[in-house]
Design brief:
The complex is a heterodimer of chains A (170) and B (97). Chain A has 170 residues and is mainly alpha-helical. Chain A has 2 domains: 1-78, Rna Polymerase Sigma Factor, Chain: A (Orthogonal Bundle), CATH 1.10.1740; 95-170, Winged helix-like DNA-binding domain superfamily/Winged helix DNA-binding domain (Arc Repressor Mutant, subunit A). Helices cover 70% and strands 0% of the residues of chain A. Chain A is built from 8 helices and no strands. Chain A has helices spanning 4-24, 29-45, 56-75, 98-114, 118-129, 134-141, 145-162, 164-169. The longest helix of chain A is centred in the first third of the chain and has 21 residues, at 4-24. By secondary structure, chain B is mainly α. Chain B has a domain at 51-97. Chain B is 72% helix and 4% strand. Chain B contains 2 helices and 2 strands; from the N terminus they run ββαα. A two-stranded antiparallel sheet of chain B has the order 1-2. The chains are: A mainly alpha (170), B mainly alpha (97). Chain A binds chain B through residues 4, 7-8, 11-12, 15-16, 18-20, 23-24, 33-34, 36-37, 40-41, 44-46, 48, 99, 102, 105-106, 109, 127-129, 131, 133-135, 149, 152-153, 156, 159-160, 163, 166, and chain B through 3-6, 8-9, 11-12, 14-28, 30-31, 33, 35-37.
Chain lengths: 170, 97
């Protein structure tokens, strides 16, 4: 059974990646924070059922993914790509500091990710932003490892095209 | 850089870097989280124990009542038998005479 100390250590390792994964999938920071904390609380409550074979990272990402879907269903606030207002489209600003650079980058990336089909976006963000293993992604999404790799590859191809302008502006 | 046999290229690193400073929310205080499963289990067992003690009490009362009745029965039977014996005794005395 997982101790409180171990769970805190898992939180420190996984929570930043999970928060980033949720942000890259259309959540606001406040909503992402709620989902991250709730996911770990649920994991803590089911700690007695966990075995050594269970991947904590895979489990917590799966819980978070389901919570995110529930939240979107409940609030029906999902922003469709076509509904993006002009004001939310990222723009290049002069004299921006590192924090603003990152914000600008994230806005560009999130817009490009939002244009990807859900299944490609999920695989790519879990792999690259969530830094999950291919095995954990396949278990989490209930698809084969080779399909995960194909989806990541396809997502990358599309992102390279949609983010090509960043190479020039940075 | 390689990750699970997938080469991380410039794009991947760019995406990763964009999120490198994202801060996670504060860690929940796990010690203060009510353990519902344990509580449910505790609730279940305390319910079972309550029922058992109630049943034990009822059975105890039942036995006490039964034994009281039985004793009453024995006493009543004893009195009746004594009366009958006396009656026969009287009859026997008369026939002897």
């Amino acid at each position: 059974m997982i101790t409180q100390k171990e769970m805190t250590s898992y939180y420190e390792d996984i929570a930043p990646r999970l928060t980033s994964f949720l942000l890259s999938n259309g959540c606001g920071y406040a909503q992402a924070s709620d989902i991250v904390q709730e996911s770990f609380i649920r994991l803590w409550k089911m700690r007695e059922q966990l075995t050594e074979k269970d991947s904590i990272s895979g489990l917590v990402f799966r819980i978070a993914k389901n919570l995110r879907i529930d939240e979107f269903r409940k609030n029906q606030r999902e922003i469709l790509v076509d509904e993006y207002e002009d004001s939310t489209v990222p723009t290049v600003e002069d004299n921006h500091d590192t924090e603003q650079d990152e914000k600008y980058l994230r806005d560009c990336i999130e817009k490009a990710l939002a244009e990807l089909p859900e299944e490609l976006r999920m695989c790519y963000t879990m792999f690259n932003i969530g830094q999950m293993s291919i095995k954990d992604i396949s278990l989490s999404l209930n698809i084969s490892e080779s399909l995960v790799k194909v989806r990541i590859h396809r997502a990358k191809e599309k992102l390279k095209v949609s983010l090509a302008y960043l190479k020039e502006s940075l | 850089m390689k990750n699970d046999n997938i080469e991380l290229d410039e794009l991947d690193l760019l995406v990763r870097n964009a999120y490198r400073n994202v801060k996670a929310p504060p860690c929940p205080d796990f010690s203060s989280i009510r353990d519902e499963q344990v509580e449910v289990r505790k609730g279940f067992w305390s319910g079972v124990l309550d029922k058992l003690s109630r049943a034990k009490e009822e059975i105890g009362n039942g036995i006490r009542e039964l034994s009281d009745d039985a004793l009453d029965g024995v006493c009543a039977a004893g009195e009746k038998k004594a009366a009958e014996t006396d009656h026969f005794k009287d009859d026997k005395d008369l026939s002897d005479k």
